[in-house]
Task: structure prediction
Amino acid sequence: MLIFNIIMKIEIDQSGKIEHTNRKTIIAFSNSNNGAIVISGNDKKTVQRYFRSIGKPRLFIYVAFVALIYLLIKDHVKNGDQVIVDREYPGYESFIRKSLKNLVQKLSGKDVTVSIWQIGKKSTAHDLAWKELKMRVQNLAKRVTYDKVIAVIKKSGNI
Result:
């Protein structure tokens, strides 16, 4: 009996930047399934205060972004999957790519490939994130609180 491990391409997009702590951020994914998470501005401010308290305020945006992506895909990713993150933070792409790959491997035991590309407005992930942020049409986004984000960050060893 042959068992095939189907490698999936998972696209990730963000609406509402993490650094804009006065409003929520939606991060969505699409492959054969779709999903999204939302974090409030107040929860992002708490995560930002955590980074300030440990003397690493400049890492807030990028490490929080990686932690949120992990929380989004952790139950959907399999060995060999290709995770494609929309280009959000030029200049930090290598850090984001390596950090996400290491985080998935460390906390989920899965080996994935992480790429950063411009996924475009025709992506299902973009459409889902944008609609959740602007129109609240689908309400598929699962709420994530600051304590879950900080717990992942502490486990990651990135800081």
Remarks:
- The chain has one domain: 9-156.
